[in-house]
Amino acid sequence: MSDKIQSIFRAAGLKVATQEYEYTSAGIAHRGENVYAIIRAPRGDATEAIVLVAPWKTVDGELNVNGVTLAMTLARYFKRELELRMSG
Fold this sequence. Notes:
Layout: H1 2-11, E1 15-25, E2 28-38, H2 65-87
Antiparallel strand pairs: 1-2
């Protein structure tokens, strides 16, 4: 699933990276990988950011299809808006 998310972000023209994580909660070790994409404003000083977060799974353990889809759609929207504002 991570590879698919990365390819969708790259297709939208975003810089993509991953971050490995590990933590322990209630004696249970949790490991995984975060996927993130960066949109940089061409004229900005790279100090401002919007962070969109969508967990893979809901609290019930089901795939968070709507949340992940919304985060990816918003990322594409912000990228497009930024490009329009910079070209006009």
